[in-house]
Specification:
By secondary structure, the chain is mostly helical. The protein has one domain. Helices cover about 65% and strands about 5% of the residues. The chain is built from 19 helices and 4 strands. It has helices spanning about 5-25, 30-45, 80-85, 85-90, 95-115, 120-135, 145-160, 165-175, 180-190, 195-215, 225-230, 240-250, 270-300, 305-320, 335-345, 345-370, 370-375, 380-405, 420-425, and strands at about 50, 60-65, 255-260, 265-270. The strands form 2 sheets. The chain has a two-stranded antiparallel ribbon. It is globular. Mean pLDDT is about 90; it is low at about 415-425.
Length: about 425
Amino acid sequence: MSRRVVLWIAFAVVHVGVAWLGWILPNAPMGDVYLVYEPWSRAYFSGGWVFQADYSLYSKDTYVGFVGLDKPWVYPQLAILPMLATWIFGWLVSYTPAWAIMIILLDAAAFAMLVGRARSRGRVTAAWFWLAFIVLLGPIALYRIDAVTVALGIMGVLWLRGRPWAASVLLAVATWMKVWPAALLAAAVIAVRRRMAIIGGGLAVTAVTLGAVVLLGGGAHAFNFIMDQTSRSLQVESPVSTFYLWDDRINGTSSVHYDPDLLTFYITGPHVDTVIAVMTPLLVVGVLAVAALGGYKAWRRASFSALFPPLALALVTAFIALNKVGSPQYIVWISVPLIMGLVLDRARWRGPAIVALVVAITTQIVYPLTYFDLLVVMPVPLVSITIRNALMVTLFVWSVVLLARVRTRAPRAATSFRSDSALAGGS
C-alpha cells in the first residue's frame, strides 16, 4: 500500500473520528455551530428572524437580523459565507453534521494540495503532523469558523511561491472571515519577492468585500469586528489570565464571570482594568516589532524558505500570546506556519511541531474535557492551561529568535531557491 493511500485512509479515520467525538465529549464542543452559526445563517433565509419552532435557544420569535450588515458582528463579513454554505448539506441532515461535512471537504482540498503524490518527505511529515494535531486538539479543530480559515490558509501558503496572486486571494478571503490570517498575509508581503501580486490580490478581495457590504447596506458595521476586539475583557483562557487564575486558586481575590453577549467567560481581579487597557497596545507593538524585524531580513535579501515560516509563526503566535482573548480554537492557527516549516525544512521544524502537539492536547484537556472545572479553578485544568499558555509564549519567543537568526544576503541566483522547489510542484 502506497504512502499516499495510507495518508488518505488516516485522513478519513481522523476526520470522521474527531467529528464523532464532538457528539460525545462534555461541555458542548460543537456549541458555536448550533448555538450561533445556525441561527445567524438561518436568519438570512427568513428575513432576519429566528422562530422558536425552528430554534430552541430563543424563548420566543426573535429578530436576529443580518449579522454584519444591519447589526454589529464579532466576525468580518465573509464569515457568513461558510455558515450559509453549510445549508447545502443542511437540508439533507441537521446543521451540525452538515458543518462537519463542509469542513471535511475543505480539509480534503487542502490535504490533497499538501500531500500531492506523497513523494516529498517534507510534505508527508507535514501531513502526518496536521492529522496528529487535529486528533490531539479534538472537536474544536473542526467545529469552529477557524477550521475554514485554516484550510484556506494551508492552500494559500502552499501557493505563495508559484501562484502568489491566487495565494493572496485565498488568504484575504480567510482574513475577511477571521482576522488572524492577516498575519500570514503580512508575512507573505514581507517575504515573497513578487509582493505586488500579494498586495494586489488582498486589495482586490477587500475592495469587492467592502463594496458588497456597502451595497447591501452594511457600511456602518463594516469594521465592527475590530472595535469588538479592543473592547473585550480578559477571557479566562488567555495567557495573561493565567496569573489571575492562580490568584483565584491561591488567594481568592480574582474570580470568573460569564458574558452572555459573547457566550464566553472572563476573569476579574486586582488591576484588571489596567491590564485590559495595556493588552491591545502591547499586541499592536509586538506585531509591528516582529514585522519590522522580518522587513529588515527581507531588505537584506533573506530567502523565502528561510524567512517566511518563522516570520509567519512569530506573527501568528503574537496574536495568541499577547492577546487578552484566548479561545481554545485559536490554537488551530499555529498549524499553518508549522506545516509550511515542515514542508521546507522538516529537521529544523520538528521540535516546534512536537511542542505544538503538546499545546494541542493540553488545550483539549481544558476544553472540552474539564472546562467547567477550570471555571472553578480545579488543579487539573489549571495546570493544563498553564502549560498550554507557557508553551504558546515559548513558541512565540522561539520563532522570534529563529527569525533574528535568519541568514541574509543570499545570492540572487536561481540556486538560492532550490530549497523552495517543494512548493512549486505537487510532489
